[in-house]
Amino acid sequence: MLMDELLKGIKFAQPESHDPSMLIQGIQFNSRKIRPGDLFVAINGFSADGHRYINQAIANGAAAVVGEQNVNGLNVPYYQTSDSRKALARLASNFYGHPSKNHIMIGVTGTNGKTTTAYLLKHIIEQSGMTCSMIGTVNNMINNQAIQSKNTTPDPLELQSLLAESRDEVVIMEVSSHGIEQQRVEGILFDYTLFTNLGNDHLDYHESLEAYFNVKARLFKRMKSQGTAIIASHNEWGKKLQNKLSESGNNVLTFGKQSEDEMQLLNVCTEYFPTIKVRLGETTDFLQVPLPGMHNVWNTLGALLTVQKMGISLKKAASYLSTFNGVPGRFETFSHPAGATFIVDYAHTEDAIEYCYQTAERENAERIIHILGFRGKRDLSKRRDIVALCSDVCSQLILTFDDLNGVPSDRMVEELQKLNEDFADGSAEIIPDRTQAIQHAWEKAENGDWVFITGKGQETYKQSFKLPASTDKQTIQFLKTSKDMVTS
């Protein structure tokens, strides 16, 4: 692409050596990936400053460089900008020809429920006859092909490449707060933006719940002029966002319990796989929610209101849900020989874990047993609140590892011991090896127990554990097979 075409719509201090007809072969923000003729974008990241690698990028063949800092003496053009991250996203959009314009774009954000809502949307949309890509936490689905996901919201180069590769009519994106804050969705305008909820999470990154909310709210500035915001009004942050957007003249639809909501939940008739009574406009109907738990009632209503706005009738959309098979790592249930129920769930916030407990209690669980995993280098205040909640509810609490993230295992054990002493009154067991923690619960489980394994969901383990498994699901499958072998 010609340099002038690549730079369209981006503010730069233009160097004297600017050549509008320079041909740029590609864009990179990692100097090791540079090939001759590429543009290198220097970003001041969290672990390294890309400006330190400008000379390495040039040595690898970079034809030009973009950055924020004052840099002199380079033998290639240097374009200085105020925000390298924003510039990278816009450059990527220019380079790939603004591919989001070729799709109906749906962005889903919130602390919990993004993945489930995205899967529900994709299922309904595809059942209606449209083709659909999905970019998110579990994996990226492009042209009906699964591509491994590294982040909930990919970096701008990968994101724009995926959008350009997609030939699908609709693209659903899970949009994380990190993705918004780091400008990964710059250059994309959405037809529909959906807000699920907000709770304590990522406060090690955003510093406060208010700051976290303000970042989430920025996604709704990225709507097309005729775009629609779909907001869960049953939580205080949803109401706050609704008021904020309505004052700005945005098109806002809500779902919740109030009569003024476009989609109103009137009644929950049955609990585990809920049958619900809803009102949409002048129509009142009974619907079957395809997933257990009240949180999935809200996820389902958000998806239904969105597709209804897209032109899929409520009756048709509800009928499509009967063939929905669930979401990997989201409330996946497994039977136990003694009659217990094991659940693998990605839950890693207080709200998400409470949703799990509410479902177990509604199903009259004899005991709730929880294998609670923790990641290194994460928000300590969130850990405390979660352990306090779990110790109050659970008959048995087992603390274990999730991902160490570079934290030495002995230090992580010390952190778990302190959590146990300070917030569980020493009642929790600590079993650092995650697979052994699951095995311990498997061997002790009794009829009527509900055993939750949270934190990882469908994710693969990042360190080696004793049992030959790489996910929680594989660990359970190994234990089931081993038990079958013993009893056969």
From TrEMBL:
Subcellular location: Cytoplasm
Identification of the protein by name: UDP-N-acetylmuramyl-tripeptide synthetase
Biological or metabolic pathway of the protein: Cell wall biogenesis; peptidoglycan biosynthesis
Residues where UDP-N-acetyl-alpha-D-muramoyl-L-alanyl-D-glutamate binds: S31, N151, T152, T153, S176, Q182, R184
Post-translational modifications reported in the UniProt record: Carboxylation is probably crucial for Mg(2+) binding and, consequently, for the gamma-phosphate positioning of ATP.
Main location: cytoplasm
Species assigned in the record: Fictibacillus marinisediminis
An example molecular function term from Gene Ontology annotations: magnesium ion binding
Entries under InterPro entries matching the protein: Folylpolyglutamate_synth_CS, Mur-like_cat_sf, Mur_ligase_C, Mur_ligase_C_dom_sf, Mur_ligase_cen, Mur_ligase_N, MurE/MurF_N, UDP-N-AcMur-Glu-dNH2Pim_ligase
Annotated function: Catalyzes the addition of an amino acid to the nucleotide precursor UDP-N-acetylmuramoyl-L-alanyl-D-glutamate (UMAG) in the biosynthesis of bacterial cell-wall peptidoglycan.
